[in-house]
Amino acid sequence: MMLPMIAALLAVQGVTADAAKKEVRVACKIAPRKLPNLPEIYPIEVIATHPAPKGQKAHETVVTFEAAPSEVHKALESIGLKPGKPVRGEGQVTGAGLEVLLEMPDKRQVRVETLLSEKKTGKPLPPLLWHFTGSAQKDGKFGADVSGTLISLYPVTDETVMQSALTMKEEGLIKMDTMKGALPPEGTAVTLILRAAAGPPPAPAAAALDPERQVTVLSRAAGPGPLPPPAVTPGLAPPATGVADPFEHRREVRATIPDVVKPVDAK
Fold it and tell me: Quick one: DSSP state of residue 199?
């Protein structure tokens, strides 16, 4: 009797779980690439977040949604997936593997990577393996509910539910934007599909790689393939008391910031 009740609750909140298909669906909208109170367009660092002003990273996302990230977390667990551990900065993400897709108004389902490209070269993002990491806690609360972030492309926050295996090294090298013409207009209703991965992501097409601009480094973190994964330093100890937070300069954009102030995490 409990499972139908849970499914009904999730459906009301714009989240549905299908155990047979091993997927969770989240109602979303195409996000604006520029917020009216900010002076410029910032690179994509997350895939899905609450809209502004609730979403701390609403200025650098592909879609926005209204459901609580903790409800999406519960839905992923309800289809048999186990969360791992999120990463902020250096480290190795863990958790059940996922594919992330968008269902368009015409019912086409496309991998979210195909909707992103490197800003300077226009090269597409290679296929990635995403991880159900679960969220760090924030002041005793589910951190992702505080930040509004559901899916993070880079480990710029651990207050999220899913992350890719890309590292801060890639974040420093490659700035992503939405692929021109790939998405419907801002505000269009779409569906985010989170599907249990059946295996490693497909190998990227050779034409999508640009060795002169080190775009191949993206595929190293996408999963098993011809290139080795990026080196990471596991088991790093937390910073000692009194040591400055290395992410201090990347504080999230809050609604209280005056219109004339740029977000301090802008590059």
Answer: S
Tokens representing 226 are: 């011809």
Q: Determine the pLDDT at residue 250.
A: 53
Distance CA 95, CA 132 (A): 5
Read off the pTM.
Answer: 0.75
Cis peptide bond N-terminal to 53, omega within 30: yes
For the stretch 60-115, pLDDT in tens is 999 999 999 999 999 999 999 999 999 999 999 999 999 999 999 999 999 999 99
Backbone φ and ψ for 62, nearest 5 degrees, come out as -90, -45
Query: Which residues have a Cβ under 8 Å from the Cβ of 266 and sit 6 or more positions away?
Result: 40, 42
- What mean pLDDT is predicted for residues 225-237? 43
Q: Where are the alpha helices (DSSP H) in the chain?
A: 2-12, 69-78, 143-147, 168-173, 216-220
Residue position matching structure tokens 């102030």: 261
* Dist CA 250 CA 263 (whole Å): 8
Among 158, 162, 84, 79, smallest CA distance to 128 is for 162
Residue type, 50: H
Which residue carries 């779980």 as its tokens? 17
Q: Which single residue is written with the structure tokens 């400055």?
A: 244
Contact between residue 98 and residue 223 where contact means Cβ atoms under 8 Å apart: no
Q: Which residues of 114-152 are buried (b: 16+ CB within 10 A; e: fewer)?
A: bbbbbeeeebbbbbbbbbbbbbbeeeeebbbbbbbbbbb
Pair 175, 267: CB distance under 8 Å: yes
**Burial category of 182 from C-beta neighbours within 10 Å (exposed 0-12, middle 13-18, buried 19 and up):** middle
